[in-house]
Amino acid sequence: MPGPVAESDAPNRLYLLDGTSNIFRAFYAIRRLSSPSHKPTNATFGFTQMVRKLLADEKPQYLAVVFDRPEPTHRHRVFPQYKANRLVPPEDLVAQIPDIKRVCEVLGLPVVELAGFEADDLIGTLARKASQQGYEVIIVSSDKDLLQLVDESVRVLHPVRGELLDAEGVRRSFGVPPGQVVEVLALMGDSSDNVPGVPGIGEKGARELINLYGSLEGCFEHLSEISRKSYRESLLQNQQQARTSRELVRISFDVPVDWEPQAFLRREPRTEEAHRLFSELGFARIVEEFSTPGEAREIPSPSPDVLPEEDLQVEVIRDAGRFRSVLETFSGAERLALAPVYTSPEPMKAELAGLALSGGRGRAIYLSFGSGDLLARSALVEGEVISELAPLLAGGATKKISQDMKRLQVYLLRRGQTLGGELMDTSLAGYLLDSERRDYSPAVLRETYLSPKRSPAPPLRKGGRPGGSGEKTAEDLARDSGRECEVLLSLEEPLLKSLGQARLLDLYREVEAPLLSILAEMEWTGIRVDAALLGQIGREWKRDLQQIEEKVYALAGQRFNCHAPPQLRDVLFQQLGLTPGRKTQKEKHFSTGMDVLEDLAGTHPLPATLLEYRSLSKLLSTYVEALPRLVNPGTGRVHASFNQTAAATGRLSSSNPNLQNIPVRTERGRQIRKAFVAREGWRILTADYSQIELRVLAHLSGDLEMVSAFGAGEDIHARTAVQVFGVPAEQVTPELRHQAKAINFGIIYGMGAFRLAKDLDVSHGAAQQFIDDYFQRFSGVKRYVEGVVRQAESEGRVFTLFGRMRPVPEIQSRNANMKRQGIRIAVNTTVQGTAADLIKMAMVRLHRTLEEKGLQSRMLVQVHDELLLEVPEMELPEVSGMVKGAMESVHPLDVPLLVEVRSGSNWLDTR
After folding, report:
1. Mind listing the pLDDT tens digit for each residue in 142-182?
2. Domain positions in the chain
3. 13-167+252-264 adopts what CATH topology?
4. Category of 634 on φ-ψ map: left (φ > 0), alpha (ψ -120 to 50) or beta
5. Which long-range contacts (CB under 8 A, 24 or more apart) does 421-424 make?
6. If phi over 0 gives left and psi between -120 and 50 gives alpha, with beta otherwise, what is residue 201?
7. In a 3-state reduction of DSSP, which class is residue 293?
8. Of the residues 22, 515, 522, 585, which has the maximum number of CB atoms within 10 A of its CB?
9. Could you confirm whether domain 304-510 is CATH 1.25.40.10?
10. Contact at 8 Å (CB) between 529 and 636?
C-alpha cells in the first residue's frame, strides 16, 4: 500500500475539500466531455484538474474530500420542506460520482461521508476538532455557508479565484464578519435549499440590517427603528420563520466523526491503478503522468509553472534596432506561431500590447509596445513594426499558426496588411474534431492532443487588457505568449493528423480555413447603418410602448411592474383567476414565460397585450437603441463578429450585434432592416436559398416523392398537403399548405406530436396522425431518419454530407427526455449541417471569383441561407448572375438548388 507523501512546509495544516459543491461546479463549467466508451466525464475531468492543481500548489500533508449523502438529515426534521425545491441531479452527473471517488482513491486522498449528515456539518466538526488540537484548517469551497466557520485557525480557499479568506477577507467579500454570516443567511434565505428566510429581504438588505443591529434578535428588538416599511412588516410577520431559517443554515459541530490525524494523511498515488483509470476515462495527458508502473511521484501542476524557464527562451524586445536584427532570423522560417496580446476585446478597437512570434526550437520573441499602465515603456511603434512585419506575414512560404486567426486578420486589415500563405487555426481545427466543446484554447486542446513530453506547459490565460486582474508585467505577458507559441507549434501536427483520421482535412482546408479570411473581411467592412432613421423609429416605438403599457394596466385593473414575474403572477393567476398551463420546474410556482402567455392569449386579452409589450420592448432595446451605439464613428458602420466555432451544427453565428436574429416576418422587424443601407452609388444585394433544408433532406433521403416534386418545380408544401391530407392539388387551401409546411419543417427539427399539436392548434392525436401519414407517404424520409438514429445510437455521433461530425451523447442516455433530445439533434444536424456546409462552400467560391475578376463588390452578412452583399450599381447585373450561379451550382444534388436574388437601396427593399 502506498505510504504517506513527504512532509509539507506546513505539517500541521489540514485541507478539507468540499467534494459535493466542487463536483457540481465542475459539471456545469465543462460541458459535453465523454470517455472513449461515451461515458460522461465532464465533472470527473473538472474535479480531477482542480484537485491536481490543489495538490501541486498547496502540497497538503493532511487532507480529506468530504461528500454529501442522499439520506435525510436533522434539518429535514426541523423543516420537512428543506431542499424540497431541489431538482433531481442530472443523470450524467450522478453517473460520474463513483468515478470521482475512484479518482480520490488512486490519488491517495482520504474520503469522508456519513449517512444522515451533510458535508458542511462534517467539515465544521472536523475543522473544530482539528483546530482544537493545534492544526490550521483550510476549507476548499466556493459555498458561502462555510464562511461562518472562519476563525483564527480556519480559513476558506476559493478553488477558482484562488482567494484565501481569513476573518477580514470574509468581512470584505461577504460584508459581515464570520460570526454574523449565519444571521445574514437566515434573513436572505436560500431558494436552492428551500430555506425560506424573510420574504422581501435579499442579500443586500440582510447585510445592511445585520451591520446595523448585529443579529436576527437585534433586528427584532429594534423593529420600530427600521425605516424601510417592507422590511419592518416582513420581519414582524416572519419571526419564527427567520429563526427556523437560522437553524437550517447554522453548521453543526457535533457530527459523530473522529479526528485522527493519521487517517487524514495524504498517501502517494497508486500509479498502476491511476494509469488504468485515467486511460479508461480518456484523460490523455494525465495518463502520461502515470505511464511508469510503480513509480511514485509528485503530481505535476496543470498550471504553467511546471515549465522550467530554461526550456523556453523568450526575449522581450522594446528597441527597434534589436527588432530588425531579430526579424531577419524569421525570414526563412517554414512555420511561424503568432500569439498577440490585445488591449481590447473588441476587434475593431483593439491595439496590440504585445506580439509573440516563434519558429520553434524553444525560442520566442515578444514585441512589447508598452501599452497599458503596467508595462514598461517601449521604443517600438506599433504601426511601424506591423509594416516591417508585413512581408513575413503576407509571404506564402511561411505557414502561420495561431489560435484565433480571424481576429488577427481583422487587426491587420485595419492597418492595410494581410496574412498570406497556409493558415493553421488551432481553435478551428479543434472545433471540427469536437463541435460540442466550448473552449478551444491551446491549453485545453493540449490536454486532448498532446502529452507533457511533446509540449511545454499550457499558457496562462490572458485577459483582453494588458495586466488585467493579474497585474502582469511585460515579462509576464512575454512568458505566457511565448509558451502559447510553443503549444501552437506542438499542436499543428497532431491536429492535422486527427483531422486526416476523421476525414475532415478537406473540409478544413477547402472550406473552413478559406472562410476565415472571408469572415475577417466581412467584419472589417461592416454594414452601413442609418442612425437617424433608427432614432426616428425609436421615438415612435417608445410612444407605442407607453400606449401598450397603459392598455396592460387598464386590462389588469391596476398598475404594476410588467417586468416583475411575482407581480405579474399575482395579476394573472390570483386576481384574474386565469389557469396557467404549467409551473416552472425550479421554483414550483406558475410561470409567466412566453409559452404560458401564448397559451393564455386565447382566454383573456391581457396575455396577448403583454406579448405585444414584450416583443416591442425587446426590439427597441436589442436593436433600435443598441445599434446606434455600436456604429463605429470612423466608418459609420456596425462591425459584427461572425463566429465559426459556436454552433455545433456548423452554422455561423453572429454577435455584437447579432444580425441573424432580426425578425423579418413582422412589420416592426422589417422596419429595422430598412436602417441597413448601401453607400451612395451602391446597392444592397441579397441572395437567398429557397427551401434549402428541405432540398437537402430530399437529397439525403432519396425520397422519390420529394425528389420528384423539387425536380418538377412544384410547391413542396402543396405536394405534402396532397399526400398527407389526401386532397387534390386544386383543393389545397392556404391553411392546409400552412399545416403541411409545419409538418415538413417539423420533421427536420425532430418535432414530436405534442409540439406539432400546439403549433397547429390541433389535438395530440390529430398531430400524431399527421406525422404517421407523412412517414407513410414519404417512406424514404422515414428510412433516412431511422438510419440516422441507428448510427447515432451505435457511434454516438452523426455526419453531414461533407463529413462534418457532431457528437450526440444524449442519444445514448437512459433518460427518455434526454434521448428524445438526442434524436432531434441527430436528424437536424445532418440536414441543417449539410445546408450550412453548402452556403459556406458557396461563399468561398464567390469570394474567389470576385477577387479573380477584380470587382469591388463585397460580402457583408450571412444569415444562414441568405447572403447580403454591397455592390456598385455598375457591377449589379454581373454580380447578380455571378452570385446566383455560385450558390446554385456549389455542389450537385439530386434536386436543384434555387436562389432568389434581389437588390435595393437598403436591406428591406431587397425583399
Report:
1. 888 999 999 989 999 988 777 889 988 898 888 899 999 99
2. 13-167+252-264, 304-510, 530-630, 693-820
3. Rossmann fold (3.40.50)
4. alpha
5. 421/394, 421/395, 421/396, 421/397, 422/396, 423/399, 423/513, 423/516, 423/517, 424/399, 424/400, 424/492, 424/495, 424/496, 424/513
6. beta
7. coil
8. 522
9. no
10. yes
